[in-house]
């Protein structure tokens, strides 16, 4: 008598990871040189600056050869330094006045005024605004120096004798940076406004909504992602602004326009305290990251 036995279940083998690995390598091999360059020229200097921020490294003297680890000594000195606190306050004023209020608002206004205009008008306005953006910072500083100097264009037009770069240096650098950087915000908002449905705006106008109400309740809500992205980009750009201020005022008179990037440059390359200057740079990096996180969080809240 034979007893029938059930056939053994088929042996299941885990899927081979070979194709997945080959697919990953197919992507990594072309990106390899770029990744190596990023590590060498981006991650490397950042990590090195992070290290020397905790040392007493200098450009000259014994500390340039045998630097010592000082822990948080540079940061304790930093937050107790009135010159750093003054530069941080000036940087905050510069970013708010130049980027958040100046470039952002003026760029939006120019983009709104160009909406619906002819191609020739838009080309002329875009050309004028973008021309200020593409000139080097040194050239822009020279233009504003000739405009605001004691014998400059502004005093000749007003019929007065006033040295604006000495009496109001922060106002001068804020205006110069707005003049130079507004083109970026204008281009961002021009692209965003082109995506706003024209029939929706026309329907609101037919219902009796005025220009202000259409802007507040239709246009701005529809381009809020572009607003947040633009604010994040111009904030980070303005936070690190150096060349324009250095060429226009040099941070003076005294420290009246010495923002944090200029103070960092002074400590690192004029007084040769590389460790202390790197600590300032690290604080600026953290501040920029915080600004980015805030804007990204606001974008996520808007999406939700």
UniProtKB/TrEMBL annotation:
**Localization (cell):** Cell membrane
A single Gene Ontology biological process assigned to it is:
transmembrane transport
Domain ABC transmembrane type-1 positions: 89-295
- Transmembrane spans: 27-54, 88-113, 125-147, 167-189, 227-248, 274-296
Q: How does it sit in the membrane?
A: Multi-pass membrane protein
Please name the PROSITE patterns in this protein's record.
ABC_TM1
| Alphabetized Pfam families for the sequence | BPD_transp_1 (PF00528)
**Coiled-coil parts of chain:** none
- Enumerate the residue ranges of region (Disordered): 1-20
> What is the protein name for this chain?
Sugar ABC transporter permease
Organism of this sequence: Nonomuraea cypriaca
